[in-house]
Each structure stands twice: as C-alpha cells, then as structure tokens.
Amino acid sequence: MVSPRSILKAFAAIAQEEGVGAHVRRSIGTMKQRNFPPFLMLDHFTVQAPAGFPDHPHYGFSTVTYVLEGMVAHEDFTGSTGVLRPGDLQFMTAGKGIVHAEIPVRTEDNKPCVGMQLWVDLPQELKNCDPLYRDLKREEIPIAKPNDKVTVKVIAGEAYGVKSVQNLAKVAVDYYDYEVAPGGSFIQEFPKSYNVFLYIMQGGLEVNGTKMAQYSAVFFDRDGDAVTAKVPESQKGSSRFVVIGGQPLDQPVVQHGPFVATSREKIYETFMNYQSGQNGFEKARGWSSKIREGITEKDVKAQEGEQRDEL
Ligand SMILES: *[C@@H]1O[C@H](CO)[C@@H](O)[C@H](O)[C@H]1NC(C)=O
C-alpha cells in the first residue's frame, strides 16, 4: 500500500501583467512561497509577439520550459537555436553562465503562446558546470492511460509503469502532465525524500476533501510516498495539471534575478563576470541574438529548410 502525502500549503496563483500581450501566474517564487527546494520558480505564462524575453543571462540553476500553445523560439550565445511547438520542452542547465533569448513566434493568427517555466536550483558542486541543454519533442514523451478517465504524459519519471526518456538534465526532477476527466482520480508515486507539488492549469481538483480551484499550486508534506487527488464528478470538462517533484538541496539560496548562488559574495562575483564577460560569460561580449526583434513562422520554416539542406 502506498501512503498519501498530506497538504502543506495551497493557494491560487494571481496573474501579473508583464507589459502588453504578456502575463504570468507565478506560484513558486512569490511572497507566498519564496521557493520549495530545489524549485525556485514556476511561471504559467501567456505571451504574445511582439512581447517576449529578449537577451538575458542566467547563472547557477536549470530551467524546464514546457510549451502548451503557440511556438517559442530560442537562441543562446553558444549559437544554439531552436523552436518549441505545443507539447515540446526544453531542459537548460545554465551552470556557470548563459545568455539567451526566448521569443514567441508570430504566427498568421498571432495567437498568444502559453506555457510553463520551472526554475530548478543546482547543487553547489554543479553551479559552475558548462551550460547544457536539450529539447524534448512531444513525440518523445510516453503516455500512460491507466483507465478511460486518466491520461498522463510522462515527461520525466515513471507513472503507471511507463518510464520517461532518461538523463534529460544534470539534475533529475520528476515531471508529469495529467489530464483527468470528471469522476476520475490519480495516484502518483515519488521517492520519499522528494519535495512534491502540483499546479492546476485547467479545471479543479479535490485533494483529501479540500477543493482546489484552477491556477492553484498545492505543496505536499514529505509524510508519504505518493500524491493523490480526484476530479469532482460534477465538473464540466476535464482537469489538467502538472505534478512535479525533486530532491531538496541542503544549501542556502541567494537569488538576484536570474543569478542563483549560495552566498552574496558569489552573486556579486557573477554580476562582475557578466559585466566584464569572463568566467563563463566570455561569449556574452558583443553578442546579441538574431531573434530579439521578433521572429515569424515564415522565418522558422526558412531556417528549418536550410538545416535540412545542410544534412
Ligand atoms: C486528510 O484530512 C484529514 C482531516 O480532514 C486529516 O486528519 C488527514 O491526516 C488527512 N490525510 C492526508 C493524507 O492528508
């Protein structure tokens, strides 16, 4: 028998406007929940061209970006480029430093791009590793269907006997995207030592008799080996939510925007490294992305055509 974890805390994420065509529902990384080690931030974002996240640095942590609707182009100072389409993810370890741009692709209908971005802290001994990233395409993600009410995309980890692609990032986190129909329930196991939370993108959930509304983040205690919840029978459509877990780190978190270290001195040093283009930020000198002013679906198709011709 698996024992369910109890709720530590739950609240609904409030939308913050981030300029024209962009808003973010941040759950982790707010006054309500500064962090939840190893997790530093979770944003449920909606962004529409010409808004976007042009050239900016990162240090000392990893990001997991999951695109739900629309397309996001990315480009970093090592010369890597790519496009994430609905259902695709990118795992990026910033390590000792990276500068990159993430820009929504302007499509014919200019629909906004919607997704989730998770920030995961790196253990002190990996903070100065070389930057690393990989994309995970929708087709690579196995799906478990334990019954006719439950579908889970096994992005990272194992659900109902279905295992994900392995070694996605330097530091493993478990990541599941669940869709559960009214009257359905799920149970997801995690290692006992992991911190686990879920975030509801659509619909509601009932966790141990407590109703959780859309956009709620639910944080669990480490008092069991699984999390479980159900979707009320009376609800109109299905619910969709991500369930995420990771090994907590026993180290201080000192964060200054996109730089995350374990001491103030190291933050100061990283800031100087970025300013002067050294110790990991050499390639930042004089670099600017091609996509920072925007990118259209036509540009993407042309680029992909060129890449095919080179093969
Ligand atoms: C469920 O809630 C009850 C109180 O309503 C509490 O006594 C019990 O510990 C909870 N169980 C879990 C696993 O959260």
Automatic annotation (TrEMBL):
Residues 175-280 form the Pirin C-terminal domain. Residues 23-120 form the Pirin N-terminal domain. It comes from the Eukaryota. PANTHER family: PIRIN, PIRIN-RELATED. Keywords: Iron, Metal-binding. GO terms for molecular function: metal ion binding. This is Pirin-like protein. Fe cation binds at H56, H58, H100, E102. InterPro entries: Pirin (IPR012093), Pirin_C_dom (IPR008778), Pirin_N_dom (IPR003829), RmlC-like_jellyroll (IPR014710), RmlC_Cupin_sf (IPR011051). Belongs to the pirin family. Its cofactor is Fe cation.
